[in-house]
């Protein structure tokens, strides 16, 4: 028995030693002698190097943070014996990671405040060729989803509220109300519809959402919209699926799993500010997850997986600021910042001061001397930068509570060049008409837009009534793709490429007929109405300034999500309001009334008949009076027979 225990102890000790060796090998950051290390930064490695500060061995090249330098500079700083190909050698023993976090604060002309969080995780690995089992910064749950379902790109958003473009301008990350999900699959997937259904069920469990209600009745396969945002030239739309749930409600149970995907969670860095009580007490709230492959080096010989988590929120000054034009981190989020995420290679706060570059209208406290310019949404913006990786940012109190105060209310907001609206017209519960309005506010340039409409099957479109007018004249689309619906199988899909004239309103109208559903297909509150997802408008809008084509220059994350191919335009996506349509609804109280009436008649009629058939009748003599009963008692006492 003792020998058996000793053998078990030896085996357990061996396993424990091997596991320690594997962990030490996975965390090892230096290469063997004579082998050069990739120039990609590793946040944990950088922290460990700062603590250890061990000198590099002879013949090695130390890792260099490329987040704050050009890749061309990294190539020039290498030794003469090291070629450019060796800088980004894909044969490194360990996949390279990088994590950056940013917060963009943009004061709005209405007095409200717009805050946009950006968290980006890069991981150089290949899920298709390698079986990945060790996860470091990249969340394992999403990595397994990519590997299991052969996902090429995944974009999902949860939005509460509607973005008011004419009051707030263009958002950095547009999203429709409710839930939106669109996925590109690898060309190796044979059953796309089956994989799509399984993927939605898995994502429903990961994000605690009702994505399991996505099926063929609300899924479409666009033919021109939603091109891939990552690297790759394959555009076979058979591997694309798009669906929306406009009625989905976003709450804390969706935010909690979203925060758990961050390397530092909500315990350090900018994620500390994500307090659900404040985020959901706002005019607009949108959180999203974007996964796509991006280039890992300048020549794009190797690719990395990019996970970008975004959260956009707009705080109303009448609700959150008691009507004052004064904001602070504590007033917005009920918390302040004390440190950056230890795993982040970059942690910054950007405050948009484009309208007040010299502090004429805005006052920042504490002030900062760091300024940055970036082209975002076709306009060159100026930002005050707070670098959280520098201890001087937090001051003597070791806490940062950024204060933004308005000095004056002067200045007008530039009207967005492109925005859209949609509404339902008509009367009664039989026929109706959908109107989509697209506004081009550019003074002299026209540009094309790609309109996508996904209409449920119970609104039967009359496609022959489709009209497109601009400035009172017919505007013939240059491209039309229409896929009719099938009852209880698939929705309508309409895509059109339309040229918008300058300073014009283009109206798209189409008539529809309301279908009568089965009584089991109605929602628990049928009189509330049925939601129709937002229209999607994609376009290359003329830019206010020329776009910078130097992709190696450091720029904020919020300005580099959508790719730009031309200097004079920038890509944008606009969503309209979701529609609320009433359908012919039966009076669901009638069954209750019929049941009550029937039960009453049956109870009265059947009860009376049953009593007549089962009750026995007997003749009962009338009871004697009181005097007679007293007399009978007396007679009985005397022994005389009663009367």
UniProtKB/TrEMBL annotation:
Highest taxon in the source lineage: Eukaryota
Any single biological process term in GO: attachment of GPI anchor to protein
InterPro entries, alphabetized: PIG-T
Keyword terms of this UniProt record: Signal
Keyword check for Signal: yes
GO CC annotations on file: GPI-anchor transamidase complex
Protein name stated in the entry: GPI transamidase component PIG-T
Native source organism of the sequence: Takifugu flavidus (sansaifugu)
């Amino acid at each position: 028995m003792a020998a058996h225990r000793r053998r078990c102890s030896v085996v357990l000790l061996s396993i424990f030693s091997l596991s320690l060796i594997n962990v030490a090998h996975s965390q090892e950051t230096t290469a063997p002698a004579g082998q050069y290390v990739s120039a990609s930064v590793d946040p944990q490695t950088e922290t460990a190097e700062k603590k250890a500060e061990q000198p590099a061995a002879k013949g090695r090249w130390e890792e260099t943070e490329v987040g704050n330098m050009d890749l061309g500079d990294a190539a020039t700083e290498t030794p003469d014996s090291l070629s450019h190909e060796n800088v980004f050698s894909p044969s490194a023993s360990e996949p390279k990671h990088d994590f950056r976090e940013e917060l963009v604060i943009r004061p709005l002309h209405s007095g409200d405040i717009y805050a946009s969080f950006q968290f980006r995780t890069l991981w150089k690995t290949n899920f298709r060729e390698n079986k990945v089992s060790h996860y470091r910064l990249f969340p394992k749950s999403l990595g397994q989803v990519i590997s299991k379902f052969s996902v090429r790109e995944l974009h999902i958003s949860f939005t509460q509220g509607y973005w008011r473009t004419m009051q707030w301008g263009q958002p950095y990350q547009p999203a429709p109300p409710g839930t939106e999900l669109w996925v590109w699959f690898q060309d190796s997937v044979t059953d796309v519809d089956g994989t799509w259904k399984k993927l939605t069920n898995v994502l429903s469990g990961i994000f605690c959402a009702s994505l399991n209600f996505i099926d063929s009745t609300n899924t479409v396969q666009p033919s021109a919209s939603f091109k891939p945002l990552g690297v790759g030239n394959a555009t076979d739309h058979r591997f694309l699926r798009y669906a929306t749930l406009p009625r989905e409600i976003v709450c804390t149970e969706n935010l909690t799993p979203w925060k758990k995907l961050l390397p530092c969670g909500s315990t350090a860095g900018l994620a500390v500010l994500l307090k659900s009580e404040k985020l959901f007490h706002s005019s607009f709230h949108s959180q999203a997850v974007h996964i796509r492959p991006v280039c890992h080096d300048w020549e794009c010989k190797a690719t990395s997986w990019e996970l970008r988590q975004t959260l956009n929120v707009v705080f109303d000054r009448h609700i959150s600021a008691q009507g004052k034009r004064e904001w602070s981190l504590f007033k917005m989020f009920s918390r302040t910042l004390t440190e950056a995420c230890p795993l982040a290679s970059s942690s910054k706060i950007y405050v948009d001061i484009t309208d007040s570059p010299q502090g004429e209208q805005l006052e920042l406290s504490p002030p900062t001397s760091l300024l940055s310019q970036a082209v975002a949404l076709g306009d060159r913006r100026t930002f005050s930068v707070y670098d959280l990786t520098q201890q001087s940012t937090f001051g003597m109190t070791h806490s940062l509570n950024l204060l933004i105060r308005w000095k004056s209310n002067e200045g007008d907001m530039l009207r967005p060049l492109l925005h859209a609206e949609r509404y339902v017209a008509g009367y009664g519960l039989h026929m109706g008409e959908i109107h989509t309005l697209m506004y081009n506010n550019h003074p002299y340039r026209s540009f094309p837009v790609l309109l996508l409409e996904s209409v449920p099957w119970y609104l039967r479109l009359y496609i022959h009534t489709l009209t497109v007018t601009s400035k009172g004249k017919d505007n013939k689309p240059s491209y039309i793709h229409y896929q009719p619906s099938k009852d209880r199988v698939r929705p309508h899909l309409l895509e059109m490429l339309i040229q918008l004239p300058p300073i014009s309103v283009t109206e798209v109208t189409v008539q529809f007929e309301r279908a009568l559903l089965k009584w089991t297909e109605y929602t628990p509150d049928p009189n509330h109405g049925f939601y129709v997802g937002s229209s999607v408008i994609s376009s290359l809008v003329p830019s206010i300034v020329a776009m910078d084509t130097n992709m190696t220059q450091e720029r904020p994350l919020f300005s580099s999500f959508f790719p730009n191919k031309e200097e004079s335009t920038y890509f944008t996506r606009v969503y309209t309001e979701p529609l609320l349509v009433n359908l012919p609804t039966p009076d669901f109280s009638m069954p209750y009334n019929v049941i009550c009436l029937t039960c009453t008649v049956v109870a009265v009629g059947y009860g009376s008949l049953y009593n007549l058939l089962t009750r026995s009748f007997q003749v009962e003599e009338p009871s004697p009076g009181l005097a007679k009963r007293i007399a009978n008692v007396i007679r009985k006492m005397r022994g005389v027979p009663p009367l």
